[in-house]
Design brief:
489 residues, binds adenosine-5'-diphosphate-glucose, globular, alpha/beta
């Protein structure tokens, strides 16, 4: 039925996200070198054969001159990318300010330090104005490139104002919006001065998607409580117009990880790691160095485990790979030094002349090194304080067919809803519980590990990123067709 409803073959999909999936480096006045960053979203959309995706977003660099802008647009066009040029002031107010200093902490239930909170309160209006202005600039570019029949898929908290701007240009445009972070309880959302305006702009979309049913429910109740609209099982209704709201849990390109384990370079990496940590169980953390990932809590729980289990001290190692992000923000600098301090203390306390219990790296690993690490790990530790989904837990599971290691997973990550039956779920704030889970994981029988792994592996293999993207876009097409039918009745 769905197939018949689609009057096209390869539909054009305009994917709008704050950042383009490229890193751009200027080589000369009119020359740029570009590298595609193969994140989850890119591989998800590359795997979808039904549409032809084009990307619209900021290239992450300031290009004030016209010559540079033209050259960059041309280079990006070859990669099917279309840039939105944002100047430094806008980036400061919209991206660093409203997005990362207001929405990000709020959506993850994180408080700001007192002085930041006051400063934020004062600069709120100007940051929100910049946010709206930036969203309008994205809309201008989308509108310029839009062709009838295209599907426009807006991503994340940076672009909550975009659906409204797009519908103002063209009420027939098919617009979907997906949030990669959690959506908070309406009690939290209502503290935002711009709470109503943001909700109304998102509601202009035809389809609104979240990772979990809980986030979708929070969004609907924010619309009913704050805007006084009617929430239905389908979504939110406003004067006869329905905005569909639903859960679309993301996945990964699991085959890419499974295949990587057969690459000679990865096999060699695995061999080296096994030799390096022979006789010790390997525990692993892979995170962006962000407040939401609960890295200090994870390391403190590991310390507690070592304190209480002297016999394990020389038999286990924690590898924590934390790629730095937003390094210019003082809060993040503070987090880095806090983590370094705790790691140093624990290594000083439990290390020997020949071995330390924690290896902490402030860097990112390339794809092959990461796969090798996932594959040799006995226990993965994901202790996010809040996390939209958390793909690291999926990637670990995909690489564990041989080893069948254990996943310890925060109940506050969206992934807890899909991998909960196979993982050991923990409250990351309760380090006594996390320490006990580490013991449970390290001592788990092969039989139980196998059973838990089977469950999670099946899920990761069958709920892929490709399937996620296909489902969202076909739901969006269907939603629009249903709305047209309703109107014509
Ligand atoms: P993130 O907060 O970035 O994403 P996550 O889903 O775990 O979190 O994805 C991180 C990605 O970066 C993974 O693919 C991982 O391999 C990679 N990565 C992280 N640290 C790395 C390191 N040190 N070296 C190399 N690679 C590293 C946001 C939301 C999540 C949501 C995703 C997708 O915060 O909750 O799951 O979007 O919607």
């Amino acid at each position: 039925e769905r197939q018949e409803a689609r009057p096209y073959n390869r539909q054009r999909l305009l994917v709008v996200a704050n950042r383009l999936p490229v890193s751009a480096v200027r080589r000369g006045e009119d020359s740029w070198s570009l590298e595609i960053s193969a994140g989850g979203l890119v591989s998800a959309l590359l795997g979808v054969k039904e549409f032809e995706a084009r990307w619209i977003g900021w290239a992450g660099v300031n290009v004030p001159d016209e010559v540079g802008q033209k050259a960059l647009s041309k280079a990006l066009a070859e990669k099917r990318c279309i840039p939105v040029f944002l100047d430094e002031e806008i980036v400061h107010q919209y991206y660093n300010g409203y997005c990362n200093n207001i929405l990000w902490p709020l959506f993850h239930y994180l408080g700001l330090p007192q002085e930041d909170r006051l400063a934020t309160t004062r600069s709120f209006q100007s940051q929100f104005a910049a946010y709206k202005k930036a969203n309008q600039m994205f809309a201008d570019v989308v509108n310029e490139h839009y062709e009838e029949g295209d599907v426009v898929w807006c991503h994340d908290y940076h672009l909550m104002f975009l659906p409204k701007c797009l519908k103002e240009y063209n009420s027939k445009m098919k617009v979907g919006w997906f949030l990669h972070t959690p959506f908070p309880s309406s009690e939290i959302h209502r503290t935002l001065p711009s709470r109503s305006e943001l909700l109304r702009s998102v509601l202009a979309a035809d389809l609104v998607g979240f990772h979990t049913y809980d986030y979708a429910r929070h969004f609907v109740s924010a619309c009913t409580r704050i805007l006084g609209l009617e929430g239905t099982p389908e979504g939110v209704e406003d004067q006869g117009r329905l905005t569909r709201v639903a859960a679309f849990p993301i996945g990964i390109d699991s085959e890419r990880f499974i295949r990587a384990l057969e690459v000679p370079e990865v096999i060699q990496h695995m061999k080296e790691l096994k030799e390096r940590f022979a006789g010790r169980k390997v525990m692993l953390g892979v995170d962006r160095l962000d407040m939401i990932k609960g890295i200090p809590q994870k390391i403190l729980a590991f310390e507690k485990f070592l304190e209480e289990n002297a016999s394990w001290r020389d038999k286990v190692v924690l590898l924590q790979i934390a790629v730095p992000t937003r390094t210019d923000v003082p809060e993040y600098q503070k987090l880095t030094s806090q983590v370094h301090e705790i790691v140093g203390r624990i290594n000083g306390r439990f290390g020997t002349l020949t071995a330390v219990p924690i290896h902490h790296l402030d860097r990112s690993l390339d794809f092959h090194a990461l796969c090798a690490l996932y594959a040799v790990t006995d226990v993965a530790l994901v202790t996010s304080l809040r996390d939209g989904m958390n793909l690291v837990s999926y990637e670990f599971v995909a690489c564990q067919e041989a080893k069948k290691g254990v996943l310890i997973l925060s109940e506050f990550a969206g992934a807890a809803q899909s991998l909960g039956a196979g993982a050991i779920l923990v409250n990351p704030w309760n380090i006594t519980e996390v320490a006990a889970s580490i013991g449970q994981a390290l001592n788990m029988s092969a039989e139980e590990r196998e059973k838990r792994h089977r469950h999670n592996f099946h899920h990761v293999k069958t709920h892929t990123a490709q399937e996620w993207a296909e489902t969202f876009v076909s739901e969006l097409n269907d939603t629009v067709i249903e709305a047209q039918l309703r109107i014509s009745k």
